[in-house]
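Protocol step 4 of 5: obtain the predicted structure for the target chain.
Materials: sequence only (see below). No template structures provided, no constraints applied. The aim of this step is simply to have a reference model before the mutagenesis design in step 5. Sequence pasted as it appears in the construct record:
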Amino acid sequence: MYDVQTVRRDFPILSREVNGKPLVYLDNGASAQKPQAVIDAVTRGYAEEYANVHRGLHYLSNLATEKYEGVRGIVARFLGAKDPDEIVMTSGSTEGLNLVAYSWAMPRLKAGDEIVLSVMEHHANIVPWHFLRERQGVVLKWVDIDVNGDLDPQAVIDAIGPKTKLVAITHMSNVLGTVVDVKTIVEGAHEKGVPVVVDGSQACVHSPVDVEEIGADFYAITGHKLYGPSGSGAIHIRKERMAEMRPFLGGGDMIRHVHKDQIEYNDPPMKFEAGTPGIVQQIGLGVALEYMMGLGMENVAAHERALCDYARSRFDGLNWLNVQGNSATKGAIFSFTLQGGAHPHDISTVLDKKGVAVRAGHHCAGPLMDHLGLTATCRASFGLYNTTEEVDTLIEALELCHELFA
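Step 4 output (structure tokens):
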């Protein structure tokens, strides 16, 4: 049985107060809190076990290397990948997506070539492609969502033309909570000979992910949303794509031999991991993923589905609240505005006085905000430690906002 109160005791920050009120942390879509096991692993990594990896032959270096490299296997298991050597360690999804842009796409795409993406993408899955648009004349083709916030997989497939060289798509919207049928998109794109990069930053947090079943060429994740340290993450890259990629960053670990007039690169995945990595951060990520798998991702998903259903029922009773996105696949992410024009920053400030932490702004999703005709929303995003009682506290705080701003 999934006992959320037992889970909450694993997260020390959840016992604190903010503005004299118990903390209700609903900003998980931006960054999740850390369990004690992760905090302990990071502390131990710096206090008792720190050394650089790969280069040393002494005890601490060997220990750090063993733990760091072990995370590759943990990530592979978490994502359902068959081969740990298809896991490239990164500082997060942003680096992973930029790796695809610079190492795979830039050498292959020329002026007039197309990249298909949806209006729901996070800036991390937009800006690298804009670099190619600005610098190489690549064309970005946008696919819209429907009135419920759903993305039709066939619309994405239909947007793929003879000049399309890549599809870049989110697995779950960080604003609307919409879960995208990426497997169908991948299958359709592959039938047309087009690879797919998936931004899995949100989806892998809330439900089990199987990259072998999805079949995407690239699948990026970020550690700080997965209850792990900031500056940690990974990207799954199929070996046939790795073979097509040139190095992105140059420096230690990604080389085998360097001479004045010659260089020999290391084998993948090391070929794409230059310099000293975030050793302790990645070790912390491994602990976070083990923690989540220990809870059972199916259990996490069931808990959050129940939370989502309860929150939807409470939001539905507020006719002065405009919730964006009503997809049947919606996860526990709610972006909203108040009727009457109260600015989301003002709403979030009032909520904060009640101890409720939400995010206000464009959520790094400019094209989606343009599509919705908004400049900003408030976003309440739930995680594995949130409760129905916290939903009730959020609703009470929103009712106060309505009284103040109506």
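Step 4 remarks: The CA atoms of residues 41 and 47 lie 10 Å apart. Residues 59-79 form the longest helix (21 residues).
Proceed to step 5.
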